[in-house]
Design a protein that fits this description.
The protein has 316 residues and is α/β, with parallel strands linked by helices. It has two domains: 99 residues, Helicase, Ruva Protein, domain 3, CATH 1.10.8; 208 residues, 3-Layer(aba) Sandwich (Phosphatidylinositol Transfer Protein Sec14p). 51% of the residues lie in helices and 9% in strands.
């Protein structure tokens, strides 16, 4: 019986591939249409693959309860719905989490250098976009690692990043979901390149960025909906214009470089009251003390009501 069931499972990708290519596919909801447009698979078919991934994993490990349906979906999408590849990626992440202590980083890691970090490495979630996603602002042109490393180390900065990723998954995204009344499991990343130059790209800068990106790509996949770049120098625009066509369609869609008229264009994605004044918005709160549903005590209290299996984000 086990071999028979496995043969059925092994045939699922081919069956679903047929569905993906069907010209007469009719989405049953806006979310279903978005899923099919981006991934070439319906939510129903994706659900089958998620269950297959879960079953494959449970043959060898006990899946920790915090790694719910949404987690498995992110890993599956990161590997283009290849169940075997997603399984390998997830198992690698479980091993890394145990070795790194990621499951306890929210409770155990105390980053006393946070005020200095906010001053010399300005970034963080600031408000939500028009779809209710948290907006993650990065200002690499204002990063001063020489000053920052007088107060902390590269290793502690990377661990703080991991802590923030855990905070995003466990608090920020669920709070945004409660506020929006729908699933919110990705963020809009706003990258301000004002002030970025050759002097910014020091060896320390490249090293910390490489470590953070390596961790995110391997262990926190598919948390970004779109990356919007503003204040891009001409050289960057020219380079992006050449490089983007070498990337797959999904990656191209995820990165958008706005024109010099970016303040007006930015408000197509983010309402003025959710933007700081420096970006053409009306919110007076500075980046180190940003607004957002995750700061609302009533919403934070409701986050506890979200089911651990992620079913909140799959309700019609």
């Amino acid at each position: 019986m086990a071999s028979y069931l496995r043969s059925i499972y092994n045939s699922l990708p081919d069956v679903i591939a047929t569905t993906r290519d069907a010209d007469d596919y009719i989405p049953v909801s806006k979310e279903d249409a978005e899923c099919f447009s981006m991934w070439g698979v319906s939510l129903a078919d994706e659900g089958i693959l998620i269950q297959q991934l879960r079953d494959e994993l449970e043959l060898s490990v006990n899946i920790p309860p915090q790694h719910n349906t949404l987690t498995l979906r992110r890993f599956l999408r990161a590997r283009k719905h290849d169940v075997a590849a997603a399984r390998a990626m997830f198992l690698s992440t479980l091993k890394w989490r145990e070795e790194y202590g990621a499951d306890r980083v929210l409770q155990d890691f105390v980053f006393n250098e946070k005020p200095e970090f906010a001053k010399f490495y300005p970034e963080g979630c600031y408000g939500v976009d028009r779809a209710g996603r948290p907006v993650y602002v990065q200002q690499p042109g204002n990063i001063d690692l020489e000053q920052l490393f007088k107060f902390t180390t590269e290793e502690r900065c990377v661990r703080y990043h991991v802590q923030q990723q855990e905070r995003y998954i466990n608090l920020i995204a669920p709070a945004c979901s409660v506020a929006a009344g729908r699933c919110v499991d990705q963020s809009l990343v706003l990258i301000d390149l004002q002030g970025v130059g050759v002097s910014t790209l020091t060896s320390d800068f490249r090293a910390i960025v490489q470590k953070v990106l390596s961790i995110d790509q391997a262990h926190y996949p598919e948390l970004m909906w779109k990356s919007i770049i503003i204040n891009a120098p001409t050289s960057f625009r020219i380079m992006w214009g050449m490089v983007k066509y070498m990337l797959d369609t999904r990656t191209q869609v995820k990165v958008q470089v706005l024109s010099s008229n970016w303040r007006e264009e930015l408000q197509e994605y983010i309402a003025p009251d959710q933007l700081p004044k420096e970006y053409g918005g009306t919110n007076p709160a500075p980046l180190p003390d940003p607004p957002g549903p995750w700061r609302d005590p009533a919403i934070v209290e409701k986050v506890a009501a979200l089911t651990v299996d992620g079913s909140f984000c799959f309700r019609a």
